[in-house]
């Protein structure tokens, strides 16, 4: 059965807007779990623009499902990950000026650095995924450096307009997912997935897990987090048929 990891970064963004204690991403994460989320994701950014170190430690100690910590491959983040020991780390590229993660890792260019980084995390008992663009070279490079799996970037699919462009992006995702599965890696997908566009992606049996943040948080303003998570889960299960 495919799983859903709910990213709660945007709750921390709202908290940061007033420098307040609320809303609390940890409280929302726990409600998301109760509503059917199979895991929780947060991205601890170098500039700490939303999620703070204390959130990461609190989550580790309170949540019941799979904890996925998104990080850039820096020395500081490596030491935090080894201290927190989440179930999983997803390595992402990080730029200071970006609004959100803009693209996949350039695994081939940074292969030596990433290989050591991945090995250290795996030695610490942490499952590692690399966030990559839907390209066969990136899948192969991830496997070559010893990653447990990949998260395939679905952002261009989500932004595609028109049937032909959408189909072309879907095919790239499918091909990357099929290759990843064939070579034995865990295969996740995420970024820009929402209540309208997730079904064709959810229909791909090669994908083990979906990472969804913004659309669920936005929907929760209207319906509450419980219904927002339940509805996304329904769509994922329905897409799988
Ligand atoms: N996967 C990765 C690697 C991300 O960086 C993000 C955004 O933080 C997501 C998934 C979730 O994307 P969205 O918020 O657009 O659902």
How would you sum up this structure, described in words?
This protein has 241 residues and is an alpha/beta fold. It has one domain: Aldolase class I (TIM Barrel). The protein has eleven helices and eight strands. It has helices spanning 9-18, 25-34, 53-62, 75-84, 111-123, 136-144, 155-159, 163-182, 198-202, 214-223, 225-240; strands at 3-7, 39-43, 66-71, 88-91, 127-132, 149-153, 186-190, 209-212. It has an eight-stranded parallel barrel with strand order 1-2-3-4-5-6-7-8, surrounded by eight helices. Helix 2 (25-34) runs parallel beside helix 3 (53-62). The longest helix has 20 residues, at 163-182. The chain is globular and about 45 Å long. The N and C termini lie close together (11 Å). Bound molecules: pyridoxine-5'-phosphate. Pyridoxine-5'-phosphate (PXP) binds next to strand 8 and helix 10.
CATH class: Alpha Beta
Terminal CA distance: 11 Å
CATH topology term:
TIM Barrel
**How many structural domains?**
1
Shape by Cα distribution: globular
Q: Give the cofactors and ligands.
A: pyridoxine-5'-phosphate
Query: What oligomeric state is this?
Result: single chain
Strand order of the largest sheet: 1-2-3-4-5-6-7-8
CATH superfamily: Aldolase class I
β-strand number:
8
Order of helices and strands: EHHEHEHEHEHEHHEHEHH
Strand content: 15-25%
Mean pLDDT: 96
Count of alpha and pi helical runs: 11
Q: Any low-confidence stretches, pLDDT <50, length ≥5?
A: none
């Amino acid at each position: 059965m495919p799983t859903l990891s709910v990213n709660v970064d945007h709750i921390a963004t709202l908290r940061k807007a007033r420098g307040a204690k609320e809303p609390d991403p940890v409280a929302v994460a726990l409600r998301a779990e109760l509503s059917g989320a199979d895991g929780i994701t947060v991205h601890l950014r170098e500039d700490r623009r939303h999620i703070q170190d204390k959130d990461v430690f609190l989550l580790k100690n309170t949540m019941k499902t799979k904890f996925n910590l998104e990080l850039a491959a820096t020395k500081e983040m490596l030491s935090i990950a080894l201290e927190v020991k989440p179930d999983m780390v997803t390595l992402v590229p990080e730029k200071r000026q970006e609004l959100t993660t803009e693209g996949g890792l350039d695994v081939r260019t940074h292969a030596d650095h990433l290989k050591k980084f991945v090995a250290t995390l795996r030695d610490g008992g942490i499952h590692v995924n690399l966030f990559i663009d839907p390209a066969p070279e990136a899948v192969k490079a991830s496997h070559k450096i010893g990653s447990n799996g990949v998260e395939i970037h679905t952002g261009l699919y989500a932004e595609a307009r028109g049937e032909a462009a959408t189909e072309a992006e879907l095919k790239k995702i499918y091909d990357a997912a099929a290759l990843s599965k064939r070579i034995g890696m865990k295969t996740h997908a995420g970024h820009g997935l929402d209540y309208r566009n997730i079904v064709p992606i959810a229909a791909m049996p090669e994908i083990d897990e979906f990472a969804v943040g913004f659309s669920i948080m936005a929907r929760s303003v209207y319906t509450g987090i419980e219904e927002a998570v339940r509805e996304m889960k329904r769509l994922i299960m329905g897409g799988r048929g």
